[in-house]
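STRUCTURE:
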């Protein structure tokens, strides 16, 4: 019978201080609040946010980015986020709790997002929805596009055809050259987000739109 593994103990104050000092020496920045970002897919969105973390030079403890592990329905993504948030808050987690939790979800799920939004609000989880999909957020790094699309394939085609990311493939894209334009993408996304009767109040009702800018603003607000 194998010995039962002991739960990891939280880092002591002395060890935490030493780690913070080491991070400062390496010019690594720690956010004032700890973030968890759970992405609907396991490819493009997680890779993008990892590149963003590197661009901002954030410590590994400041932001954790995870994919959906194949459970990509909006309600499943939110449930995964709620579970990880709950686990991190336990005494024997060996880590600090998450103070801001976000889910990056594609708006092409339409009405299926309603249940996910209700669960997110109950668990104090925030949603960053892009319609039709995350690739629209990527397109905003290059242009102020307000043209609706039928599906995600059309957005991928635009990224490639216009030469913005000519070799774009989900999970096979290097976002290091793209994320420096994140503030410009946020500016465009805010300008183009126009909820109303004609376009719909919810982000999944407006084609196109992206509310990833809200997540970016949340990060920038607590950045040292």
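SEQUENCE:
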């Amino acid at each position: 019978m194998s010995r039962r593994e002991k739960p990891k103990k939280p880092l002591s104050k002395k060890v935490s201080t030493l780690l913070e000092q080491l991070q400062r020496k390496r010019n690594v920045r720690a956010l004032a609040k700890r973030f968890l970002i759970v992405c609907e897919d396991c490819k493009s969105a997680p890779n993008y946010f990892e590149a963003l973390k590197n661009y901002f030079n954030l410590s590994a403890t400041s932001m954790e980015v995870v994919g959906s592990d194949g459970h990509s329905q909006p309600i499943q993504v939110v449930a995964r986020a709620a579970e990880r948030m709950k686990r991190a808050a336990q005494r024997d987690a060996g880590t600090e709790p998450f103070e801001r939790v976000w889910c990056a979800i594609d708006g092409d799920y339409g009405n299926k997002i309603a249940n996910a939004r209700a669960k997110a609000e109950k668990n104090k989880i925030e949603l960053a929805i892009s319609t039709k999909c995350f690739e629209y957020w990527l397109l905003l790094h290059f242009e102020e596009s307000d043209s609706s699309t039928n599906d995600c394939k059309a957005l991928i085609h635009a990224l490639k055809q216009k030469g913005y990311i000519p070799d774009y493939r989900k999970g096979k894209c290097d976002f290091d050259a793209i994320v420096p334009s994140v503030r410009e993408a946020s500016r465009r996304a805010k300008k183009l987000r126009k909820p109303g009767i004609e376009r719909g109040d919810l982000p999944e009702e407006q084609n196109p739109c992206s509310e990833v800018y809200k997540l970016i603003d949340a990060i920038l607000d607590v950045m040292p």
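REMARK: Strands lie at 35-39, 63-66, 100-106, 126-131, 209-210.
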